Amino acid sequence: MSGTPRLRSAFPSTPQTSQKGRFRTSNNGTPIVGENVGTPRKLQDLPSPAKPSETAAPLIPFDIIDAPSQRFYVFSVYVFLFAYRLYDFYNLTVDEVESFWLFMKWVAFDGVFLFLLPAMRIPWLEWNVGTVLLLFFLHATLDGMLMFRIPLPIPALLGALWKVFFDDEMAITEHKVNVGKLLHNSSVILGKQIINILPEGSAVLNPKKEPFCLDSTVHQIQIPIQINQTTPVLIEIMRIDLETMQNETISISASATRKLMKAARKSQKAASAASPLLLHYPVKKTGIYILRKVLDETKLEVQPKRSDVVVVTCPQASVRPTGDSRCRNELSNVALEVEGTPPLRIKYRTTVNGIPREASEFQSLQPEDFVSPLTKHETNALVRANEEDVSWAQSHKLMVPLNETLIKSGKWTYSVEEVQDAVGNIINYVESEEDEKPRARSDSLLQTFTVHERPTIVLDGCDSRNPLRSAKGEKARMPVRYGSTAPGKKAIFGPAHTVEYLFTPEDDVLPNGGHSLTAQPIRTVLETTNKQPIISDAGLYTLKSVSTKYCTGEVLEPATCVLQHPPEPDLVLSSQNITDKCAGSPIGLRVALDLIGTPPFMVHYTEHKKGDVPRPKRARMTSLRGQIDLTPPAAGHYTYTFKAISDEVYAEKSLKPELVLEQDVKPSASAHFAHSGSLETCIDEAASFSVILQGESPWTLEYDLVHSGKRKKHHVKDIHDEEYTIHTEKLTSGGEYTLSLVSITDRQGCKEFLKEQSTINVRHERPKAYFGQIDGKRVIRTLERNQVQLPLKLTGTGPWNLKYKTPQKVESQRIYNANDFITTKEEGIYELLSVKDSICPGSIDENAKQFDLAWVPRPKLKIAETATTIFEGGFYVKDAVCEGDEDSFDVILSGTPPYEVSYEQHFKAKRGGKALGQAKKDLKSALGLASVRTDTSQSGFYEYKFTRLGDNNYDHDFKKFQPVVLQQLVNPRPEARFNNPGKTYSYCSREAEGEEVIPVTFTGVPPFYLEIEIKHHGTSKPETVSFPSITSHSHNLRIPHKKLHLGHSNISIRKVRDARGCTRKPPTSSPRVQISVHDAPSAIPLEDRNDYCVGERLSFQLSGQMPFSVFYTFNGKQQKAQSPGTTFRRMAELPGTFTITGLKDSASECLASTPANNPLLTKVIHPIPSVRLSRGLESRVDIHEGGEAELLFEFTGTAPFEFTYTRSTNARKGVKSKVLEIRTETSYDHSMRIRASEEGTYEVISIKDRWCSFAKATEGTAAGRGQKLLTY
To answer: Residue 928 belongs to what domain range?
Structure first.
């Protein structure tokens, strides 16, 4: 708030970042600060902002390309250069000159790249000169080795890397094991015991420096007392009252102390009685609590640390109510009331129209000249020796005024969110997500008021140049227009407006047009903005103010208006006769009017002919003089009575007395047409005109009919009616006729010449209708349901009413254009029936009255029926074929090419089964016949469904097209395969006769015909053997013994055929089997020992044909292993007995059994000994000086055991542990106990038993000493 005054002790007005979630609540319910907030201490100055770093800007700014992207681009360029380097290396010839130039080229490229890279100043790539030089020399060395073809030890490097990352070997349980994990098993030596020598007992009050407070909701708190290495029987606490400054001593007895310790151990679940305990002592009064004395169970006084607890009244805050209404641009005038131990901090938030602003806060709120030790002390003591003035901890009430300009109307809310006292107690009034139910916010925590817009007022339509006029004695509305300061200046609806204005009577207005000293102030209240002040007296009115019940407003210009009362209207008449020149008789009156009032005037009078009803009339005058000619059309006695007059100000005012004029009128003869304008008619028809006659009957009328320069006169006598109809003869010629009234003679013989005439337009011909042509004919073929416009040709004068017949009904249509269309979508013959234009009925041209509309036929599709394709059951069926055979069918198309056909190919495993695949295909054909190739790549049931058809004219219409379906069965080709492809069927040399059995599996329909091919090693021509009539799907081939030769032979399937006639010839690369005859293999151990440890390797030398199958038992379980070479090696993963029982090589199926009692092929694997210190866990033991702790060692393995353990310094943060001593012990049992009284960390580093040993990797020792077979 820019306009809010600040206390002199407050920080700047920048809103602070909310630290919601920073505070927590203690077990006693008192708000306390969280772990990241320390003990209240001296308030320091705000830290100054750090200066920006002096790091040079990158060559390419990060707002164009960020740092990661720049690094990526550099890496991409480096990868490209390296790939280009390898490309040159690949194309390198043996020419040394070329090698030299390539070497120089890449040295230059690497130098430019590496030395320019730091200039880019990209983070992580800003290398110093030494690094760049080192990289350059490494790249130059690589360039020399590549370009001069110096061989690189790549295989050795890859082998070493493989051993580092993939150090797995096959174990005797026939699965891969990681040698490193097996040799360096961390579970062999487990456990660690840490012995701490405790200091003397201690006690401290409030060790965590938590704040505490009491209020109306928190009546009791629990202050913490931490004891260590002591069992107190008496605790004395001194309390200083904050109001009276009096001291009191609180003694906690032994029984109360035991209860506190029991509750502390239960809540903390301490593992040892010597662990520090946190006692919670309840208090219900505010004050400063100081720990004075602690006695342990030996009656010795424990020296307590200097500490205290300040328990104050909880801080609170509220917003003082100051009314619920404000006006725009006023000050907010809000005050925050804060109570608590200063200096205080308060946080509040302003919400405008439901939109919260950023929270603001005041800090360091305290009374004038207030000094608190919390802002100055540098030790933990808040009460110093002999000083018991604790008035600084008393609660104070402070007022914080808030004043800001209310620049926006609407609902404003000031709410308190948080208050904190000097001790650190925080009261948060804002709901958080951790609250189980919403908090009930007190009304005192927020102040809500409404900011109203200010009204405005201005005169609209009245100023010094445009006075307001009203009739005498009548009231007028002051033309005020309401507005406001709201956007758009809209008027304020709702509250009443109070308007004040000055009034000076017309006679008292000063000569300069101003108000006199006796001007009257008038105040009026208007309930709505539709109402205006009512004024009646003539004079000067000036608006002075406007207000609502909330706000005063502003008077805008113009604000002054003059009200005038003009004189009432009146008139004076004078008249003279208007006479006929022939008869000399009067034909009317000419009346002159002299008017008084405000123009324009309206004179109201009546005209009364004797014998008739009076007719009211009026005349409008725009000036103070006017004239009226009263010339009635008929003869008679007329009386004119002037009854009233009105002007702009006064409504109709009666004339008293009424002014009356009388006259006998005899008008002269005259005649005119009843209807003016021309007349149109058809040829060969007569025309009629009505003529109105005036004067004294009977009359004689003369008129002429003129056409084509010829005039024909007509004379009609003794006309007694005032309206006469002239009927012409039939007008047989087209063109324009003119009927002119020539003269009229009345009873007295006065003849008056006339000028009236009317025109007759006679049509030269009658209208006609006929169909136009499209492309020279009245027949059209169009696409189905396409909208077609049939051309119409019409003559005459529009609009025309046309009746025609469609293929379904007779229709009528009003046509406005002579070249119009009939729009339709239906095919058939259209015929015109009749036509009539705006004047005459017409005729239809018999030769062009019909139009034929036909549709272009839609395309059709069918499948050609042949001997292999028939139609049955609503679809086409094609003969079955074998898988992979070529087949097709023809599709016959009719329509307009080219054609577009879409069909779906469905694949099913069998007829009626579930679809396994679907493909949509398109077919385009420029002819009426298309060939579709069937899919025989996979056996099964195929269905071809033609779903879409379109040609050059029509797109596909699913409503018009019926899908066409063709079905075909594709039989699978038979298949024969060896059950064990690639297997070598071996024969032992001692087996003399007998056919070998080779299992073969068939697929297809039996019986089968099979041909196999036998190729012997060393011969070029294979032998063929046939097996006809195989009736089952599984068959054991017995190779005739006469077909077998010593050595190796390959057997492959040459051809197979099933009962359907389908044949399959496997490719030459198809799987095959081998047969051979060999001697039995043998195995010999590589080491002359029978005892091994877990982690060692068992190795045997094998003789025979690689690879070998080794059969052995491990712990009574039969195992089979494969050995690709002549050395069989396995890692001893588990302890047990290993014995090789048999051996088989790849040459034959002969199993060479070994004697069960052969000691050379039986090995005993011993387990690795293990040791557990402190049950294998890390335990901590705290003892007093001079005490002892027990070290328990537990062993597994074969006794005796020899182990080495160390004592090192206990680990501390930032200090490296150091080995203090190393000891070696021997145990003939599986457990051993050793007493220790020295502080340190005890752990075992090596162990060995009767057979094996293990050493733990420690600093300064090799990590891989692993296991070792020992001998005692």
So the answer is: 860-970
